[in-house]
Amino acid sequence: MKPLSMLRAALVVIVLFTVATGLIYPLFVTGAAQLLFPRQANGSLIVRGGRVLGSQLIGQPFSDPRYFWGRPSATAPFAYNAASSNGSNLGPTNPALFQAVRARVQALRAVDPDNHAPVPVDLVTSSASGLDPHISPAAAYYQARRVARVRGLDESAVNALIRTHTADRWLGLLGEPRVNVLELNLALDEMKPHQSERTP
Amino acid sequence: MTSFNVIQILIYLGLLLAAVKPLGSYMARVLEGEPVWLEKPLGWLERIVYRAGGVRPNEEMGWKAYAQSNLIFGLAGVILLYVLQRVQGWLPLDPQHFGAVAPDLAFNTAVSFVSNTNWQFYGGETTLSHLTQMCGLTVWNFLSAAAGMAVLAALIRGIRRKSAATIGNFWVDVTRSTLYILLPLALIFAVVLVSQGVVQTLQASVTAPLREATQDAAGKTVATQVIALGPAASQIAIKQLGTNGGGFFNVNSAHPFENPTPFSNLLEMLAILLIPAALCYSYGKMVGDRRQGWSLLAAMSVLFIMMIPLAVWSEQAGNPRLTALGADQHASALSAGGNMEGKEVRFGIVNSALWATATAAASNGSVNSMHDSLTPLGGIAPMWLMKIGEVAFGGVGSGLYSGMLMFVIIGVFIAGLMVGRTPEYLGKKIEAYEMKMASLVILMTPLLVLVGTAVAVRVHAGTSAVSNPGPHGFSEILYAYTSAANNNGSAFAGLSANPFLNLTLGFAMLFGRFALAVPCLAIAGSLARKNIVPAGAGTLSTHSALFVALLVGTVLLVGALTFFPALALGPIVEHLMMVGK
Fold it and tell me: Residue B12 pLDDT more than 60?
């Protein structure tokens, strides 16, 4: 083969496979996905009464003591910006990491002064995506007393709510046990709506 | 390590090894040109490619024509992918109106995908249109992996044939690999991923109200969340299978829409190593001695598995400085504990550390945790596996051709020297020419890595891109050139893009891919011409445990001698800083 005929072969392979793997393949998968798994393919949205409340898979920022807080998020320009995922990329000896962790520990203790237990690590370290929808069960139970106190609920009722919202390892083996923060907080609000809930 | 950590690692390794034989055997048939049943539904497409491209499938090439075809294919790919990014604003399927990608970033991304590296200086959901993702990135996820398998097939033919002038037809190898191996696997895998929650839609985004309004950096109230969507599953399936690794979203497989569940995580991790591992079996089958394939797989597995405990243990041990600040890093039934900075709760420690090791072993480069935030020793695991040249398991095809098989040549040569006999491999005499070419391949990437790093840490454009102070900043740069030259693509992602890095890393990727393929094909051509000498009493058995040990030793020795000083300046110093007072 001469170089010119190689170029022809190269261009033909690229163009034809652009059609096959760049258009037909993703569109075929899109069709199959929309047909077989429409809820998952469109973002696993939480819909109540026709209104989208968020996604099961995408966390939201919480800083009010009456809600369970999720993972710290490093997205810009605001936490849990689901249009621009990002981690902190802070190295393990970066002073900025220590400062951030210190501030998060302080913030948690400020709203829960009687709680002297060490803070579960996932509550004070930022997630990889900045959108982590989960916290560990330990991080949820750590906050249970605070949430119960602020909302005037029984702590045991809040603990029970955490238990029903805890997902175990897949088949009891894979991944880690976890609690979906947005779903837990939605369930809290449904349990006993707080007065200031609708403030804009 | 907790028992759940060990169980999950064993499940992963067991499933991976179980898949090697069936897939490897099938791939060997595709690469040998034997009939496969997928020719019934897809054969017409294969014939169209040949007819339109002027390719005569039975006409074979010598190694020079084969290498030329590979280079022209890559060059055409880089140019077309560059142009596509520059004009994406004028083309359809740009729902967020991103406009043209900057020239240096477009060059970097084009080289990155054509060279099977998929280094990610672009932020998927903030710079690339859906058309670029589909018709640019997804296409080259397929084609770069297929080109890797093609070059491997050519090298295998060179080893097996005797007194032959040709080593196959590049276009046939690329076409058949794409159509009968990558496309069907990706199709099935993509749909399974969607079932787990990976998004696949042409809609750009959906807006949801925030339960609790928040404030942005400027103090403005934010009451809604714009959730980016897109045709992600189709790209992620092939990004994992093709050892590509370039994500649809900025944070890659750490994004809940790319990797939503522990099950999707298991499947994606399997897909990372699946084809490179199975190609060892194909190799054995194609050279006519399956034991040869198993011994290569054994050497790769040893190199890979020895890094897993280091990564998992180091990440599980966590960061002592955070304990002092009041964080609880103990593993318990209710928490994974450990170093959770830059990790997702659903993956915890073991699945993040295992992934980091696997993605570096396979020259895949996709991430499910932020490698920049790994503990220093945890970060050594992926860096080391890249540094030893992506030989275990390496890229699709390239892990064998520019990786393990070059070390095999060095290995039999060293063994030959020890006993004073002419080295031979599978009946082919290994002579000065093969040794020169193999040495060239093995020395090229360290040269790119060390010179690149040395220059970058001396210029402002390099040091100003670093996001972490001290030795960790050095590690960021070292990791970047290691990843680029070895076509891995993962990153200590704190390093920010600038024209200097876009260009130098772009050239490192280009050389790491195409300059290495040429000497490998030269070896193929030279071996093909040789006669096969029957094995005698002095022939070194290359399927014995002894040879596996020799091979592993050679890889470790070359890697350690080349990179220990650089590693000492980065992660090792940082580890001492972290655990010291």
Answer: yes
Count of CA atoms in the C-beta half-sphere (13 A) of B362: 33
Residue extents of the structural domains in chain A: 1-42, 45-197
Residue of B nearest to A52 (CA): B208
Q: Looking at per-residue confidence, does B535 or B317 come out higher? A: B317
Judge whether B454 lies within some domain: yes
Strands B327-328 and A119-120 come out as parallel
**Which of B208, B374, B492 is closest, CB to CB, to A54?**
B208
Yes or no, beta carbons of A40 and B194 under 8 Å apart? yes
Nearest residue of A to residue B169, measured between CA atoms: A1
Query: pLDDT tens, A108-148?
Result: 999 999 999 999 999 999 999 999 999 999 999 999 999 99
Nearest to A89 among B53, B343, B373 (CB): B373
pLDDT in tens, B368-425: 999 999 999 999 999 999 999 889 899 999 999 999 999 999 999 998 888 787 899 9
For residue B73, give its domain range: 3-211+224-578
pTM of the model: 0.95
**Mutation site, B50, B201, B341, B354, interface A, largest A CB count within 10 A:** B341
Contact: B251, A129; criterion CB under 8 Å: yes
The CA distances from residue A77 to B215, B372, B567, in Å, are: 9, 21, 35
Please name the member of B80, B348, B372 whose beta carbon is closest to the beta carbon of A176: B348
Structure tokens belonging to residue A49: 């009464």
Is A6's CB within 8 Å of B135's CB? no
Which residues, 6 or more positions from A161, have their beta carbon under 8 angstroms from its beta carbon?
A: A184, A187, A188, A191
Residue B541 backbone zone (phi > 0: left; psi -120 to 50: alpha; other: beta): beta
**What is the dihedral angle through the alpha carbons of B189, B191, B194, B198, rounded to the nearest 10 degrees?**
50
Residues of B in contact with A178 (CB under 8 A): 345-346
Which range among A134-138, A170-174, B450-454, B501-505 shows the weakest confidence by mean pLDDT? Answer: A170-174
The pLDDT score that the predictor gives to residue A192 is 64
Q: Is residue B218 part of a domain?
A: no
**ipTM computed for the complex:** 0.94
Q: Which residues contact B175 (CB under 8 A, 6 or more apart)?
A: A13, B46, B49, B50, B146
Closest-CA distance, A73 to chain B, in angstroms, reads 10
Question: In this complex, do B327 and A124 lie within 8 Å of one another by their Cβ atoms?
Answer: yes
B-chain CB neighbours of A55 within 8 Å are 206, 208, 227
| B216 is a domain residue | no
- d(C-alpha B379, C-alpha B468), whole Å: 14
Q: Please report whether residue B191 resides in a domain.
A: yes
